[in-house]
Write a structure and sequence with these properties.
Oligomer: single chain
Strand order of the largest sheet: 1-8-7-6-5-4-3-2-9-10
Structural class: alpha/beta
Distance between the termini: 22 Å
Helix content: 25-40%
Shape: globular
Radius of gyration: 20 Å
Number of strands: 10
Strand content: 5-15%
Largest sheet: 10 strands, mixed
């Protein structure tokens, strides 16, 4: 994740650089969902195929904690469709691991908001554009109002909440709408996920290079605008770590004397963290470097411990090289120490090679 607001603020104000080795796990507990979203990497549907057993969750948590996992994001499918979701979240917190919930929000109401506040440190709710665009993208009329209502309910009850938006050719026209929405509603965080064509998202087109560049610039300039005008919103992007290079360029125009500060901060961050500080567990128990990878490194329900899987895999060793050994434009790019080669899953989805160049990189 590229924490735009945080890096701008901390670089301008010359705050200390803080490094962390904490691992974040995105855990897809189920592949059942009450929506049919165009971009779903899990290809979730109304019929469950796999669901991680509660006993498997409970048994693996101590090992995950010992392996450095400090945050688990519960996702799906729609994780709130599991009747034991709050038991799972409580067990995770009892193991000393922070919890987050990634949801479409349709099942959040005043009946379960107290349990959500008690069990989750953070809730991310997806809205992918203006009402018509969101409802079309998510496959349900009226979904926008329900999701926005869930965000309002969370804020009213003291739940730390943010809005999640997927940038694609089908949603990008709503970028200005989304920024206006978070400012008007007082939503404290915006996470913008750049499209990776995995799962059902394989049918969603990428933006043209020129349009994508304009959208990237718009996002970063909004982050500057919000910071410089004391708008209390944290803007974070994901799945396009090369965006940090444009951030550097635009930052230098505004704060040339702090350029080196931001550069060193981005080097300490290290860019793409798939298989390094990010791991995914699918609803079937497969362990992957991030949710968009096609390959499994092992399965927590088939006898292997999490730490064994996490520490003894050739693909992971290659992903953890600094710098990564990559091909194409990435091979000789002098910004590799910042972006770390960007999304390896996106490279694979287009070229069939996890170590080719990422086609969405706009640094020519």
């Amino acid at each position: 994740m590229l924490r735009l607001t945080e890096y701008i603020r901390n670089s301008v104000e010359d705050k200390p650089i803080v490094k962390t080795s904490a691992v974040i796990c995105i855990w897809n507990l189920t592949d059942i969902c009450n929506l049919s979203c165009r971009h779903c990497y899990a290809s979730a549907s109304s019929v469950a195929t796999y669901e991680t057993r509660l006993s498997d969750v409970q048994s693996v948590l101590p090992d995950m904690r010992a392996a450095g996992v400090r945050v688990i994001i519960l996702s799906g499918g729609e994780p709130l469709m599991r009747p034991d979701i709050f038991d799972i979240a409580s067990d995770i917190r009892a193991a000393g691991i922070s919890t987050a919930l990634s949801t479409n929000g349709l099942l959040i109401d005043r009946g379960n908001i107290a349990a959500i506040r008690q069990c989750f440190d953070y809730v991310g709710i997806s809205i992918d554009g203006s009402p018509g665009i969101h409802d079309s993208f998510r496959g349900m009329p009226g979904a926008y109002e329900k999701s926005l209502g869930a965000i309002r309910t969370c804020m009213e009850h003291g739940v730390e909440v943010g809005l999640r938006f997927t940038l694609s050719a089908l949603t990008h026209e709503s970028l200005p709408f989304i920024f206006d929405l978070i400012r008007t509603e007082g939503i404290p965080k915006l996470y913008i996920s750049h499209l990776v064509t995995s799962g059902r998202a394989g049918t969603v087109p990428y933006l043209s290079t020129d349009t994508y560049l304009r959208d990237e610039r718009f996002i970063i300039e909004k982050a500057f605008e919000f910071y410089e005008n004391n708008v209390p919103v944290n803007i974070v992007t994901g799945n396009n770590d090369s965006e940090a290079v444009m951030l550097l360029s635009l930052f230098k125009e505004r704060y040339p004397l702090r350029y080196d500060n931001l550069y060193e901060r981005l080097r300490a961050w290290g860019g793409n963290q798939a298989g390094v500080k990010l791991v995914n567990i699918t609803s079937a128990g497969d362990v992957k470097p991030d949710p968009f990878f096609q390959c499994s490194m092992g399965n927590i329900g088939q006898g292997g411990s999490f730490s064994q899987i996490w520490n003894s895999n050739g693909l992971l060793s290659a992903l953890r090289q600094r710098p990564r050994t990559l091909e194409g434009r990435c091979k000789a790019c002098h910004y590799l120490d910042i972006c770390n080669g960007n999304s390896r899953a996106r490279a694979y989805s287009v070229t069939g090679d996890y170590f080719s160049e990422d086609p969405l990189c706009t640094n020519y």
